[in-house]
Amino acid sequence: MDTQEVIARLRQAVDETKVRTNLEFLAERRHDYSVLSQLADLKGRGCPNPACVVTPSTTNDVAAVVKICRETKTPLLTFGLGSGVVCGIMATPHCVLLDMGAMKKIRMIDTDNLMATFEAGVRGSDAEAAVARRGMTIGHFPQSMDVSSVGGWVATRSSGQFSSAYGSIEDMVMGIEAVLPDGEIYSTRLTPRASSGPDLKHLFLGSEGTLGVITAVTFSLYWRAPKQDYSAWRAPSMEKGFSFQRHVIQSGWNPPVMRQYDATEVKRLFPDQARDRDAFIILVHEGPTGRVEAELKECEEIASDLGIGRAPSEPILKWLQDRNHVPGFESFLQNNIILDTIEIAATWDRIEGIYHNAVSSLNLVPNMLNASAHSSHCYRSGINLYFTFAARVDDPGNMETVYDDCWKRVMEATLRGGGGISHHHGIGRIRKKWLADELGPAGVGILRKIKNVLDPENIMNPEVLIPHE
Ligand SMILES: Cc1cc2nc3c(=O)[nH]c(=O)nc-3n(C[C@H](O)[C@H](O)[C@H](O)COP(=O)(O)OP(=O)(O)OC[C@H]3O[C@@H](n4cnc5c(N)ncnc54)[C@H](O)[C@@H]3O)c2cc1C
């Protein structure tokens, strides 16, 4: 169907002020925060505007839009707050973009059952502030919490800075409401656990807009911890540092924040703490006072057994204060410096090899200015790594090629080392070509079959996540 007819039908189905065609409004929502989209804009060849942006304010609005898109075979892209970094949103001239920003009601906060339900467009920091006013916390603190939505958190399988104790998004989501690609509304029953077949809400965790539109999220909450304390440590190598973290978490302690920076990152982020090739580790301890004190004492003992020394805690206070500030990419890109961050995860026995192989491989890229990593999410069976690369490119026409090369190096080092290609940013368009290497043919086959059954017309964010056959 002609795009103008689709727009006319949308205007009949939902309040017509919710169907926007104002060019500035469309342009602001064309893509997410990914480096490649920003680079393309700077070069004047960014992606086009969508045909229109719909700003639903109810789940019924969303269902009406989805039905029209299905009937007219119009691609539908869901936009949370646009902070995604893997090219998950990239408009095409005939697509409809669904901006969830107007769905921002708090539906319920329940202090007896420790639950809260938010519409999908609620900004992460607003959701946390709403429960914090009643002494609770969601426990989810992604660096982007001021610029991301709770629906986006679920759609990307997000993980926050305090994950080592509170878990990642899958551990705190108790229920979801979603509009399926045929317009039907699915809603989870709120029970603390169920053994009623596969947990269907997990279909939407990490679905990246391909299986439906998440319209509301219910979190299981925590009371805020009465006590917080900090400890910093210096390890003579990344290996020793990983060993320290492994012993801490496998002994049953779980400081919510456990971060380990390699020597390159220590020089850049904590210059006062830089010593030779030492890694720098910061821990935030939280909980009842007795537990926090016992955890700190135990960490001292584990560190002493491993020959790891205590460092001053002041840098942690600075990290806590500045942790959500990230310099924009634009000035780097304008100066022909291509850069990005890439997060992966692996079991304890594999992480050291992946770290060295990926950093060494990145350092082979001509004019590499920074190839470094830190870990920021710790588990009993393994840990993540968050690589940062920045390379100066002599020929500005080669920025994308160098970018792809850097990604390839980290993805291949991870796969060869037996790790997982994404810890929390998702797949989008950027990682799609490596997904089959991680999931295997059967795994990708399952994804394709689910997609074909739920969305046979392939209208929901069609170019994302699932590799083409
Ligand atoms: C500076 C910075 C720091 C970051 N730090 C972190 C971090 O610490 N942890 C972390 O996990 N991530 C982080 N991210 C990545 C990003 O913030 C997360 O992926 C976030 O969850 C995206 O939420 P959003 O609302 O902005 O989603 P968007 O960018 O709008 O969308 C992301 C994807 O989800 C889909 N989607 C969004 N909303 C819905 C919905 N309601 N229903 C169905 N599909 C939907 C989109 O179609 C798209 O594919 C960071 C990003 C930046 C720029």
Rg (CA only): 23 Å
Reported by name, the CATH topology of the largest domain is: Uridine Diphospho-n-acetylenolpyruvylglucosamine Reductase, domain 3
**Number of strand elements:** 19
Helicity range: 25-40%
Small-molecule components bound: flavin-adenine dinucleotide
Q: Which structural class matches the secondary elements?
A: alpha+beta
Describe the protein in words:
By secondary structure, the protein is of the alpha+beta class. The chain folds into five domains: 98 residues, Uridine Diphospho-n-acetylenolpyruvylglucosamine Reductase, domain 2, CATH 3.30.43.10; 121 residues, Uridine Diphospho-n-acetylenolpyruvylglucosamine Reductase, domain 3; 96 residues, Alpha-Beta Plaits (2-Layer Sandwich), CATH 3.30.70; 87 residues, GMP Synthetase, Chain A, domain 3; 39 residues, Vanillyl-alcohol Oxidase, Chain A, domain 4 (Orthogonal Bundle), CATH 1.10.45. The chain has 16 helices and 19 strands. The strands form four sheets. Strands 12, 13, 14, 15, 16, 17, 18 and 19 form an eight-stranded antiparallel beta sheet that branches. Helix 1 packs antiparallel against helix 4. The model has no long low-confidence stretch (mean pLDDT 97). The structure holds flavin-adenine dinucleotide (FAD). Flavin-adenine dinucleotide binds next to strand 3, helix 6 and strand 10. The site of flavin-adenine dinucleotide has 36 residues, from strand 3, helix 6 and strand 10.
